[in-house]
Amino acid sequence: MSANESPVAVPAGVTLPIYMDNHATSPMDPRVLEAMLPYFSQKFGNAASRNHSFGWEAEQAVENAREQIAKLIGASAKEIIFTSGATESNNLAIKGIAEMYKERGNHIITQVTEHKAVLDTCKRLEKYGYRVTYLPVKADGLIDIEDLKRAMDDKTILVSIMFANNEIGVIQPVAEIGKLCHEKGVIFHTDGVQAVGKVPVDVNSMNIDVLSLTAHKIYGPKGVGALYVRRRNPRVQISAQIDGGGHERGMRSGTLNVPGIVGLGKACEIAGAEMATEAARLQGMRDHLRNKLESALDYVEVNGSWEHRLPGNLNMSFVYVEGESLLMGINDVAVSSGSACTSATLEPSYVLKALGLGDDVAHSSIRFGLGRFNNEAEVDYVADKVIGIVQKLRELSPLYEMVKEGIDLSKIEWAAH
Amino acid sequence: MAYSDKVIDHYNHPRNVGQLDKSSDEVGTGLVGAPECGDVMRLQIRVNPETQVIEEAKFKTFGCGSAIASSSLATEWVKGKTVSEAMEIKNTDIVKELALPPVKIHCSVLAEDAIRAAIGDWKKKNGVGETAGAVAVAAH
Q1: What is the CATH number of the domain that holds A154?
Q2: What is the architecture, at CATH level 2, of domain B5-133?
Q3: Among the three residues A228, A256, A271, which one is the final residue of a domain in this structure?
Q4: Could you say which of A3, A322, A395 has the minimum Cβ distance to residue B39?
Q5: So what's the pLDDT on residue B132?
Q6: If you average pLDDT over residues A184-210, what whole number do you get?
Q7: Residues A172 and A244 in one domain
Q8: How much is the mean pLDDT over chain A?
Q9: For the whole model, what pTM was predicted?
C-alpha cells in the first residue's frame, strides 16, 4: 500500500523499494552465496569428523575461512572462534572474561551508547556482583579518554568499547583505548560489528585483545559470527558459555555452521579486497546526500562526529518533523528512525539522548545506511523524496511555523502527557 | 507498521491545514502535546457568535501519521457542529473511524484534548465558560 502519491519520478537505475538500512543488515553478495552453496548439499560433512573425507573437506573449508577472517583484522587464524553472530560473541567475550578473571578483579568499563548485547550483558553481570562503569559520551558521540583513565582502578579486568556505533556511525578512538588498556594490563574487547570490513581494523597496532564481528553486516549470511581472542601479548583466556564437545579450542562447543562460516570467510575476503574503493564510493554518495539535504532544507542537524564516522553512515535530524511521519512519506525507501514511535518501547533512541540531544530532536532523526549495492541514482531519488516530504510535513508542523514566527519553543509551557 | 487506508488518506490529503487569527474573539485555539513527547497538535475553531456553530476549523500537527490523521479528522468532525455538540466527540470515536492500533490510542486522546482546549479557549474569550460553570453548579 502506498502512503503517498510519489511526486518524484523514478529515474533509471532505481528499483523500488530502495534498501538504505545497511547498519541493520545487508543483502548477501552473490559471490558469497555462490561460495556457500556446495556446503549445503554435496559438501555437507561435519568439520569435527576426523576419520573420513567428508569431515576433512568441511574442516578444510572452515580453516580457509578462519584465514580469510584473520587476514582482514590482522590476526592469526588460530585466534578466530566461530559463533552464531555478534550477540553471542559479545556475550561470550564479556561473560567469559568476567568469569575467567574474577580472582583478579570484578570491575568492567563500558560506555552508554553500546549495543544492547553489551549493555544488557553487563547489567546481568552486575547482578552477579560485578561492578560496571558506563562512561558517558561527548556531544560528538565519542568517549573521553580521560574519563576512561579515571574510571580504571586495580580491580578493572575488562574494557568493552565498541569500534563504530550502529546508529550514528561514529568511530571511537580505539587505538588510544587499546594503548591505555595495555599500559594498565586490562583486557580490551571491542564490538567491531559495524566497523570490520568497512574501515581498516588491525588488532595488533590497535592493541585489541578481543573483537566481535558478524557476517550479515558485511554482505554475508545471518546466523554466523566470530570472536577474535588474542593468543599472545597477552594471552587472553575465556570461560566457555556453551559446553559440549569442546569445539573451538573449548571456548564454544557446537557443530560448526560450515556453509555460514564459508560465507563469513568469503565476505571478509571481498571486504578486504574492495574496502578502499568501496569506502571512497560510499563516502562520496553519503556526502552528496548530506549536501543535497542541507542545501534544500533548514533546521537539519547531523548527529554525531562527522570526522570520525563510517563511510556509509548519515544520521540526521529534520527538526520540527516527527520521524515516523517522515518514514511514512518515504515508504518506498528503507531507512530507520530514532523516533520513539518506531520503537517497541515508545522511548526515543538512547544513543541520540546520550549525545545530549533533546527528545524532540531525537524524534526527528533518520539513519541512512549506505551499502555496497546502493548507487548514485538511488541517493538522488532518496534525497529528493526526503526533501519533498520534509517540506510537506513542515507545512503541517505547528512547531516549524512558531519557530519561523520567532517564538522560542523552550519558553512555552507544554503539557506533558 | 501497517496503517489503515483512512489514516493514509488523511496523511496524504490532510483536511483543513492552516491557521486562524488567534486574536479574534470568534476563534478558539487549542495547543496540546509536547515536542519531547513527539507530538504537538494545534487545533483552531471559528465560532459563529449568533448560532454557536463551528463554521471553520484548522489544524497543524507535529507527530506521527496517526496523530496527523486524528487531528485532520477532528477538524472535519467539529465543522458544522455547535460548540456543545463538538464537546461530545470522544477519542474512542476517532480510534474506531481510523482503525488505530492500541499503541496509537494516545493520538486520538490528544485530538480530543485539542478539541476541548480550542473550545475552552473560545469560551474563556467570550465569557461562556463562567455561565456554563454556574449552570452546572446550579444543576447539582
Answers
A1: 3.40.640.10
A2: Alpha-Beta Complex (3.90)
A3: A271
A4: A322
A5: 46
A6: 98
A7: yes
A8: 95
A9: 0.92
pLDDT per residue over A322-343, tens digit each?
999 999 999 999 999 877 665 6
Question: CB–CB of A397/B33 below 8 Å?
Answer: no
User: And the C-alpha cell for A96?
Assistant: 567469559
- The verdict on residue A10 lying in a domain is no
Select the residue from A322, A337, A359, A402 to test the B interface by mutation, using most B Cβ atoms within 10 A: A322
Q: Are residues A251 and A341 in the same domain?
A: no
Please determine, for residue A128, whether its predicted confidence score (pLDDT) is greater than 90.
yes
* Cα–Cα distance, A136 to A355 (Å, whole number): 9
- Per the structure, the count of domains in chain A is 2
Which sign, positive or negative, has the C-alpha torsion A128, A240, A165, A338?
A: negative
Q: Determine which of A327, A403, A414 to mutate to test the interface with B (most B C-beta atoms within 10 Å).
A: A414
Q: Is B64 annotated in the active site? A: no
Distance from CA of B97 to the nearest CA of A (A): 18
What are the cell numbers at A85? Answer: 553472530
Cβ–Cβ < 8 Å for A161, A176: no
Q: A243, A271, A299 — which closes off a domain? A: A271
Residue A345: give the domain boundaries: 18-28+275-411
Query: How many contacts does A have with B, using Cβ atoms within 8 A?
Result: 98
Residue A137 sits in the same domain as residue A34: yes
DSSP SS3 for A81: strand
pLDDT in tens, B49-108: 999 999 999 999 999 999 999 999 999 999 999 999 999 999 999 999 999 999 899 999
Burial B127-136 (b: 16+ CB within 10 A, else e): ebeeeeeeee
B36: which DSSP letter? G
Q: Say whether A300 sits in a helix, a strand or coil.
A: strand
My answer on whether A66 and A204 are in the same domain is yes
